[in-house]
Amino acid sequence: MKWPRTLVFGAALFAIFLFAALISFLWTPYDVEVLNIPAKLKTPNAEFWFGSDHFGRDIFSMIMVGARTSIAVAIVAVGIGIGLGVPLGLWAAANHGSWLDEVIMRGNDLVFAFPSLVIAILITAVFGPSALNAIIAIGIFNIPVFARISRGGALSIWTLDYILSARVAGKNALRISVEHILPNIANLLIVQGTIQFSLGILAEAALSYVGLGAQPPTPSWGRMLADSQTMISFAPHLALFPGFAIVLTVLGLNLMGDGLRDILDPKIRRSRQ
């Protein structure tokens, strides 16, 4: 099978930042928590590949550790969305038309009414800003997304003949959902997962930008952008490199999502044959 170019290119882009995040656990060119005031605001050079910030910290090292922060937040947040949203969606589909279905979907609508940033503000007002609270806020916003995707995909399968045969054979709704429904909507969940992953990185950057995400001294791409806004006229590299990191990571994930959709969606696959 020929892999779509979008999938290959997107995976390569994301792999660069994933590798940087993983290697940062073991090595970075400089310690991101150590201040080096004499070297502050250095432009990119042989010593500081991406330059240094107003505290003399190496931007390249901070990009590496920031990748770790953004990817970890997005992974856990998407995991929360899948872990809670998919069962809710399958449960609602199995009880389609009942009061339970109505309660679950109206609850989803209620969560959709509050963007992740608003949810984060509510959470941090009570518990204080942190990466954990950013994860909770983004994860809560992901739950209704996966619930809707799961319910929509499941409803189209519940009407098929082999599901009727499974019910005649005595299988209950839970068993049918796990054995027959879930495997057949896995392609939808995988594609949506990559999309929500990219949105999770954007949301983490936005929350950190307004001070609600990871707190100092932990580097974050969003906070690096916030710190650079008053110095962008004479030190544009402070905003340029974290901005490129966000754009390229999100672009890679979106291209991966498009490529996976081309492979997993049978309608698109047949139209290209």
Structural class: mainly alpha
Strand coverage percent: under 5%
Poorly predicted segments: none
Shape: elongated
- CATH class group: Mainly Alpha
Radius of gyration: 22 Å
What number of domains?
1
Give the assembly state of these chains. single chain
Mean pLDDT score, rounded?
Answer: 88
Number of helices: 10
Q: Please identify, by name, the CATH architecture.
A: Orthogonal Bundle
Could you tell me how far the N terminus lies from the C terminus, measured between alpha carbons in angstroms? 12 Å
Largest sheet: none
Q: Summarize the helix and strand pattern as letters.
A: HHHHHHHHHH
Q: How many DSSP-defined strands?
A: 0
Q: What is the fold named in CATH at topology level? A: MetI-like fold
Assign a percent range to the helix content: over 70%
CATH superfamily: MetI-like
Quick structural overview:
This protein has 273 residues and is an all-alpha fold. Helix content is 72%, strand content 0%. Helix 3 packs antiparallel against helix 5 (131-158), helix 5 packs antiparallel against helix 7 (173-209) and helix 8 packs antiparallel against helix 9 (237-264).
Characterization of the model:
With 273 residues, the protein is an all-alpha fold. The protein has a single domain (5-19, 57-268), classed as Orthogonal Bundle (MetI-like fold). 72% of the residues lie in helices and 0% in strands. It is built from 10 helices and no strands. It has helices at 5-23, 59-94, 99-112, 116-127, 131-158, 161-168, 173-209, 221-228, 237-264, 266-271. The N and C termini lie close together (12 Å).
